């Protein structure tokens, strides 16, 4: 592919989406084609633009159909100044969520340990203590200590050669399932951003459709390009939408 302003060429996006769809249909835990850093940057930017267009389109349609209040966004806006909101929502939370849902798509004992700890913190915060990821309340250190314990235990177990080999074979054999589960978990766990009632659960697939699409892209770029690429896209997306909330209109 010629690197000469590809982002303005419709054929480039067709090729980009073809690569993404092929990966989604048959995900593998290694790059199918080796690309230069320049190609990776262009592809990442291109997928970011596609994701933004998709997210805005879905959000706009939901305004006319069903649009529950995003309790997480409201809570953060009330607790943080604009600058702190950008730091927490645009940097800290994307790092946390990428570690939780994408880091371990490439198997490594350290990666799996960090993912296990982060996921423990996520579930304790959302499902057990009914708190917020960024809220430092009286349960915060309980959540942190539990996550650290899980990190240490997981790393000790995964460092054993026999267990490491079993997990490596599992990743190679069942990567398709691991990829799909990471996408669905990332998307559907965002239901905690809304009030947990029957109506929102029924609307779950549509309410979390932008997150599901984002997860498919993030999983693809994480495996094909490296962890830093979906992380930067996640940060850029959050920062963009946070900045939009500062504008003087809905």
From TrEMBL:
Provenance organism: Flagellimonas alvinocaridis
Transmembrane spans: 45-65, 80-96, 108-128, 140-157, 177-194, 200-219, 231-249
Species classification: Bacteria, Pseudomonadati, Bacteroidota, Flavobacteriia, Flavobacteriales
The name this protein goes by in its record: CPBP family intramembrane metalloprotease
Presence of the UniProt keyword Flavoprotein in the record: no
Keyword Membrane on entry: yes
Keywords linked to the UniProt accession: Membrane, Transmembrane, Transmembrane helix
């Amino acid at each position: 592919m010629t690197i000469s302003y590809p982002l303005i060429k419709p054929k480039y996006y067709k090729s980009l989406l073809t690569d993404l769809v092929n990966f989604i249909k048959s995900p593998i835990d290694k790059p199918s084609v080796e690309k230069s850093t320049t190609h990776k940057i262009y592809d990442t930017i291109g997928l970011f633009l596609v994701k933004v267009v998709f997210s805005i389109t879905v959000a706009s349609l939901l305004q006319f159909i069903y649009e529950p209040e995003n309790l997480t966004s409201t809570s953060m806006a009330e607790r943080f100044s604009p600058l702190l909101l950008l730091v927490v929502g645009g940097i800290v939370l994307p790092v946390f969520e990428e570690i939780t849902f994408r880091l371990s798509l490439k198997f490594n004992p350290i990666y799996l340990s960090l993912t296990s700890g982060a996921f423990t913190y996520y579930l304790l915060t959302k499902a057990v203590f009914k708190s917020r990821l960024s809220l430092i309340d009286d349960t915060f250190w309980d959540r942190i200590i539990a996550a650290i314990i899980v990190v240490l235990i997981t790393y000790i177990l995964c460092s054993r050669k026999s267990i490491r080999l079993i997990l490596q074979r599992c990743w190679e054999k069942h990567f398709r399932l691991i990829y799909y589960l990471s996408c669905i978990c990332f998307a559907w766990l965002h239901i905690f951003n809304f009030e947990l009632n029957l109506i929102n659960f029924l609307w779950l697939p549509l309410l979390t459709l932008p997150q599901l699409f984002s997860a498919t892209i993030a999983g693809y770029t994480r495996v094909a390009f490296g962890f830093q690429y979906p992380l930067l896209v996640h940060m850029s997306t959050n920062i963009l939408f946070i900045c939009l909330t500062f504008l003087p209109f809905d």
